[in-house]
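Work Package 3 (structural annotation) set out to generate three-dimensional models for the target panel prioritized at the project kickoff. During this period the team completed the workflow that converts sequence records into discrete structure tokens, so that structures can be stored uniformly alongside our sequence database. As a representative example, we reproduce one entry of 180 residues exactly as it appears in the project archive.
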Amino acid sequence: MATWIPTEELIEATGRAKMLGRWRAGTENWLLARARGITGTDVGAIVGANPWKTADDLLAEKLNPLGSQIEPTLPMQFGSAFEDGILKVWKDQNVAWLDAFKTGTWQSCEDPTHIANPDALIQWHNGDLGVLEIKYTARKWDKLPEYYRLQVLWYLHVLGLKKGLLVQVYGHTLTEWPID
């Protein structure tokens, strides 16, 4: 369990969202917290933009959160395994104007069915706050996939923030996709 960070206190102080907890992805507590409502990864399935999950698949997961999870594929395992290292490299490259912190599962205070699991929170040196999502991918994107853009927008909505970044790592390149 990671320690509480000041950026999380700043978000809670706005009254927009509260921290539910810090759980490793795939654990029972993590699955049950996400089953309480709609998460960023759910939004793409709901609007038909997710090529790997339909709205019907999502409904089955919500009705049986502990019994309908798929086994992580090798690419999914790589993405999870490399996330901390990618975050460290990205932070080191941007240390002059921001910091980023791993975070946990959040719930909207306005609508408790709105859940967010961003990979990290960003605090720019000017005081602005935002979210960071990390994707380790098998192919370079010419355009940010819509389901990933929606995921970050959902996190911004839940946390009451205005700025987000998606960091894509493909091969030996790191690409930033700003999302406002």
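The helical segments are 6-13, 28-35, 40-46, 55-63, 74-94, 146-159.
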